Amino acid sequence: MYDRKNEQDNLSRCLNSVKGCVEEIIIVDTGSHDNTIAIAEEHGAKIFYYPWDDDFASARNFSLKKATGDWILYLDADEELEQNCCARLKKLESLPGIEGYIFQINNLSDTNDPLRHINLRMFRNRPEYRFEGKLHEQITHIITSYNFGTVVNSGINIFHYGYLSSQLLTKDKISRNYRINKKLVDSEPNNPFYLYTLGGTCINLKDYAGAAECYERSLDNVDPMAIYAPSIYISYISCLLAMGRLKEAYGKIADCKKQFPDYVDIHFIEGEFFQKIGLPKKPLKALKSA
Question: Where in the chain is the domain with CATH 1.25.40.10?
């Protein structure tokens, strides 16, 4: 794992969750001036320092170089591993032909309705496997490109506390992410992934018009086979609904259903759309489809 900095409010929870599950803990700190380092030392972590350079992949890769085990499990300091999963986690290491495992990430929210997504969080420790991307760094496509083995679902959850409003306000993550993401879009204005993530940052800043523009440009440039392509539609539709642009939202729902008919989330958000405009029967039909 690596810790950006000043994670004293989160780190103990994170490290306690992996106690007994891992053989070594690597902490890479990028400039803490609170009790983060003392907490890491209490948990027996190996601590290294990395000067922050607005590059998440670079910092993450620095931490990988310090790990000595056969497998990597990576968490951020504001995350927590599912309780009572150590036996299942260790069993994953012994399964043949597997190079990596996907975990379900539960992003806790102030509405008590977590936003969930999946992410590869455990993989074999190979020098070929390194992250790419200054923001929202990725490694799955690197691991699958080598064909050393398959990537499968672990069945294990990770809980993320970083998007609670108290965390965002305290650490000013929104402004930091916007600054980094805007630089990336300025350097590659037609990069669909950068536009997609910038749209999400605009949403956090309540700039829905700016987000809509980013999502539209992302859809204009994205490869339909990209794993995140359907998610652009969902984010765009949610944005349009928030602005009351219902006709446009319905058009994007139709476009997404045509392009990705088996994508569960589009049927769910269609149900929400019909509920919002007051059609009593159609939401149930859409939710049944989901």
Answer: 172-289
Task: Give dist(CA 288, CA 85) in Å, integer.
Answer: 33
Q: What residue ranges of the chain have pLDDT lower than 50?
A: 2-3
Report the candidate in 124, 171, 130 with the shortest Cα–Cα distance to residue 151: 124
Contacts of residue 132, Cβ cutoff 8 Å, sequence gap at least 6: 57, 138, 139, 142
Provide the CA 220 distance to its chain's centre, in angstroms: 23
Looking from the CA of 149 toward its CB, the CA atoms found within 13 Å total 13
Q: What angle do CA 249, 253, 257 make, to 5 degrees?
A: 170
Quote the mean pLDDT of the chain.
90
Closest CA to 232 of 242, 241, 244, 220: 220
Q: Which fold has domain 11-165?
A: Spore Coat Polysaccharide Biosynthesis Protein SpsA; Chain A (3.90.550)
**3-state SS assignment for residue 46:** strand
Q: How far apart are CA 22 and CA 18, in angstroms?
A: 6
Q: Convert the pLDDT of each residue in 131-152 to its tens digit.
A: 998 888 999 999 999 999 999 9
Tens digit of pLDDT for each residue in 8-40?
888 999 999 999 999 999 999 988 888 999 999
Please enumerate in sequence order all residues whose Cβ is within 8 A of that of 205, keeping only pairs 6 or more positions apart, or say none: 174, 178
Fold for 172-289, please state it: 1.25.40
Kindly report, as residue ranges, where domains of CATH 3.90.550.10 are found in the chain.
Answer: 11-165
**8 A C-beta contact, residue 180 and residue 54:** yes
CA-nearest of 76, 58, 61 to 135 is 58
pLDDT of 169: 54
d(CA 11, CA 36): 7
For the full predicted model, state whether its pTM sits above 0.85.
Answer: no
Cα dihedral 201/206/212/215 (nearest 10): 20
Structure tokens at 147: 């064909």
